[in-house]
């Protein structure tokens, strides 16, 4: 029977390499921030497994998200992951959390992850998104780009594209006011991560004098641009207007950023038109296409 230990900032040091670099600082300072919880397991004083989670208030309920769950390969399929999960769940119940969730991508261990979750009575995982990974050397052959001139000619004269970096204060204020009145537009908040925006090919779309859409990108690595957010006011779009923005941004990357040949994006699984477009039109030209999954468990 495995007995994971709850980690503090001292004991966490030995487990640092079992989580992603982005979370290592949170793990090492876990005693200073009560919203983070971690359990580790050692076998003969050797760290073999770690689970790291964060709790928060969502819709007036206390919930938790597992940020990292890892068991070193030679110790997998021995029940260690399930033991870590159960220890975490007990601590979350003690803290008053009502729900815990875990997100993950398609990977060679997906079957074993889901067997572990099932053994702990988690709900069946559901697809949440498509994650695309591509290289502009291949993507330039997609019909979206090969037929760009024909596609862009469909944009009515009242619409115009502009560099997002030229967005005025009045434009930004108008968008913020619209977001307050429209929950759908708020979901596509263009000001999230604005300090990390890739100015090279982040674009806006105007209808007459009003900003009605945007294609926002971020440089997530020196050679990779993430296509983070694409939105056109539903009242003013067929899908082609979104695709014109996407194709324009991709063309800019191809022509002006030879140092950044890679691209990635996420498409929510309930965005049926874009999921269909990706699977039918872009998938043959991508390096990789993965599904994102989410599982959860009610703790009360």
UniProtKB/TrEMBL annotation:
Gene Ontology terms for molecular function: protein-N-terminal-alanine acetyltransferase activity
Domain N-acetyltransferase residues, every copy: 1-158
InterPro entries per UniProt: Acyl_CoA_acyltransferase, GNAT_dom
A Pfam family it matches: Acetyltransf_1
Domain of life, per lineage: Bacteria
Stored Gene3D superfamilies: 3.40.630.30
UniProt xrefs under SUPFAM superfamilies: Acyl-CoA N-acyltransferases (Nat)
Name used for this protein in its record: Sll1552 protein
Taxonomic source organism: Synechocystis sp. (strain ATCC 27184 / PCC 6803 / Kazusa)
């Amino acid at each position: 029977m495995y007995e994971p230990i709850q980690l503090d900032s001292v004991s966490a040091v030995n487990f640092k390499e079992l989580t992603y670099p982005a979370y290592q600082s949170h793990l090492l300072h876990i005693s200073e921030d009560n919203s983070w919880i971690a359990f580790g397991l050692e076998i003969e004083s050797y760290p073999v497994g770690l689970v790291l989670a964060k709790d928060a208030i969502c819709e007036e309920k206390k919930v938790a998200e597992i940020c990292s769950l890892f068991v070193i390969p030679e110790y997998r399929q021995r029940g260690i992951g399930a033991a870590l999960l159960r220890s975490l769940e007990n601590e979350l119940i003690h803290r008053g959390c009502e729900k815990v969730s875990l997100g993950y991508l398609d990977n060679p261990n997906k079957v074993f992850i889901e067997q572990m979750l099932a053994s702990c009575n988690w709900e069946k995982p559901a697809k949440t998104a498509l994650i695309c990974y591509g290289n502009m050397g291949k993507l330039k052959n997609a019909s979206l780009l090969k037929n760009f001139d024909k596609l862009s000619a469909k944009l009515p004269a009242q619409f115009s594209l502009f560099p997002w970096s030229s967005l005025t204060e009045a434009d930004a204020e108008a968008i913020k006011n619209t977001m307050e009145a429209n929950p759908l537009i708020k979901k596509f908040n263009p000001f999230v991560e604005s300090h990390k925006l890739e100015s090279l090919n982040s674009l806006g779309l105007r209808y007459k004098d009003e900003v009605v859409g945007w294609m926002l990108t971020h440089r997530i690595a020196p050679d990779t641009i993430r296509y983070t957010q694409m939105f056109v006011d539903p009242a003013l779009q067929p899908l082609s207007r979104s695709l014109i923005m996407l194709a324009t941004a991709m063309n800019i990357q191809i022509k002006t950023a030879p140092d950044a040949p890679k691209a990635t994006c996420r498409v929510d699984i309930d965005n049926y038109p874009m999921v269909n477009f990706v699977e039918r039109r872009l998938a043959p030209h991508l390096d990789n296409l993965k599904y994102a999954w989410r599982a959860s468990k009610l703790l009360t």
